[in-house]
Structure formats: structure tokens, C-alpha cells
Amino acid sequence: MRARLGSIERDILEELTLGDMMYSFLLSGRSTKQFYRLARERATYRYRRKLAIQRLIEFEYIRERGKYLGITRGGRNALGVSIDETHRLLSTAVWDHKWRIATFDIPEKYRLLRDKVRAVLKKAGFVKLQQSIWVFPHECEELVQLIKEESRLSRYILYGVLSRIEGEERLKKLFSLKEK
Description:
This protein is an alpha+beta fold. A four-stranded antiparallel β-sheet has the order 4-5-3-6, covered by helices on one side. A two-stranded antiparallel ribbon has the order 1-2. The longest helix is centred in the N-terminal third of the chain and has 27 residues.
């Protein structure tokens, strides 16, 4: 007798299949511990993302529309506040010598949303590093996560933190960053 799988169980199984199977084949027999660590990290990320979505629903920043999520007026306002706070960091925060990168590869069918993402990043003070790669010198993960909550975009946007980047001196001048 097979157990019925809920959406979370199906999601976990789908995400574990190809990526984690490839890891297991590529890693040696002695490295199964690393394989399980990577699988646990991915499951933890999915769980944290689920909790974040639940919090956003509780705050009424997003709402469920069938199997999709949509941003509410309150969510748009929160995004606007987050944009303003992120931009304010440029003049108030001390730089921690790390670069935040937001990168996206949004398909043409979502062109209007892609343009909105670009406009939000510009307004927040990000600088375009290359096509669809934007950089910022202060913590801004909350803003990027709010942008990603548009359910159609989450898989196309990545956020990262770098300790060093080529052309760093030019960026320091653009952001008016000073060495400690």
C-alpha cells in the first residue's frame, strides 16, 4: 500500500531526485556523509522558505491564488519601504567589505516583470555590473527576497554575497566607499 503524498512531500522528492542523485553518483563511497549534508542543507533551505512564505501570508503581504502566490497592496508598500531602507544604507551604513549580487535571467514572456525588477534595483541604489547582474555593498537580502516573492520570478533570480570582485576599485568609487 502506497502512502499519499502531499504537496510538500512531492516538492521534496522532486528536488531531491536529479540534483542529489547526481551528487551521489559523482561522490565516492566515502563521501556519502557529504551527500547527506548537502541534501539536508537543501531541505533546510526549502523549510526556511516555506516558513518565510507563511509569515508573508500572515502579514498579508502576499496571498494564495490557487497554487500561485501574489503580492498584496500591503506587500507592495512593504517592498517600497524596503527599497527606501536599502537605498538609505548607502549614506548611513559602514561597509563590511562584502558585495551583494542580485542576478536574474527572466524569460521574455515576463518582460514587464523583468523591467519592474530592474527599476526596483535601480531605485534601491544597485549598480549594474553586467547585463542582468546588479551589485550593492550592504546587506539587502530582504529586498531581493521580497522581489522573489512574485511567484513567477523566484526561480529566475539569485542572490549572493562576495568577498571580492573584479573591478572592485571602480565600484568603491561609484558607491563612495572608504577603506577603514
